[in-house]
Design goal:
It is built from 13 helices and seven strands. By secondary structure, the chain is mainly α. It is an enzyme of class 1 (oxidoreductase).
Amino acid sequence: MATMMNKRSVGAFGKQAPVRSARVAARPSRSGSVRVAATAAADDLGFKKMRDGVKVASDETLLSPRFYTTDFDECERLFSLELNKNLDMAEFDAILAEFKQDYNQRHFVRNETFKAAAEKITGPTRKIFIEFLERSCTAEFSGFLLYKELGRRLKSSSPAVAEIFTLMSRDEARHAGFLNKAMSDFDLALDLGFLTKNRKYTFFKPKFIFYATYLSEKIGYWRYISIYRHLQRNPDNQLYPLFEYFENWCQDENRHGDFFTAVLKSQPDMVNDWAAKLWSRFFCLSVYITMYLNDHQRNAFYGSLGLNTTQFNQHVIIETNKSTERIFPAVPNVEDPEFFRRLDLLVQYNEKVLAIGRMDLPDAIKLVMRLPFIERMVAEVFQVFIMTPKETGSVDFSGNKAAIVY
């Protein structure tokens, strides 16, 4: 497998330069909320370990996956059959019946090829695979914790919706466990119980949770299916069998996103006024920009799969936006060439900020050096936000009644 790292591959998302074989050291991020003993040992890739085979979780940053919590009392009111007459229980019951089918119950079954493939991935490619698995596992586990608590808290006010959340938490736990087991193929894993107790939780109001989770699930679908289809066309870049599971896996993401579509339709004020348009655009841009910057920091990972990071990201954002405009009342016009031109500028400025952070200088001097680039990034984000949006949404509401028009 190591020899594949030096091959150039052409796929739907263009060329990517080969990954070089020189070993790189891990570079610590800024401090996060999860603390372990300062004497934690580091392996030869630079990863710190809590104990043998258990990795210290990466520090939280502005762009890293987060754990979320919300106002569960408000959620109970939003899904109360007595208080919310817009709840279409026929639609929720149909969604529940589909989740109960558990189409992927027997899908996530490992075989002997996993460990053998991991042993052939060496050097910097091994390091970036571990980082990818950790980020993906953390994101899926975050969804599990949030959905599990929503399922528990909504049992009285809306049993059907509560059961849907519980079944979604089942899916997310399955994904997180599968990814954590994949990490163990690389001789590391996360202590998910430790993370549950020690990770910092970010509070979002329920409507912001619904916007963010809808986008997270839909963009997850387009990421997974795009990687899967690319590797089906380019089997020489199928370095690790995890990606062979992405076709069925992404269907879980799509079903979750469809459920949040029904949730948003049940809350008219979240999709039918000027504030909803602003928040819809804000969350779209937050998710799109975060992904764009994150992935461009990890060109080597996408290069190892024969993907061009920029073309892959642009494809995923465009397709996610097409899905999102069916329910959000306004979305960014991502097909305007100016949109990605400005995102590419953000990548350039972010690279400058990261390069300064790696310099062997006092923190105060590095902060002063970073400020001009951070200022430019803020200005570019503002310019993206004020671009003329697309007026969208496929749901019309009349008075207090939910009249769904397609």
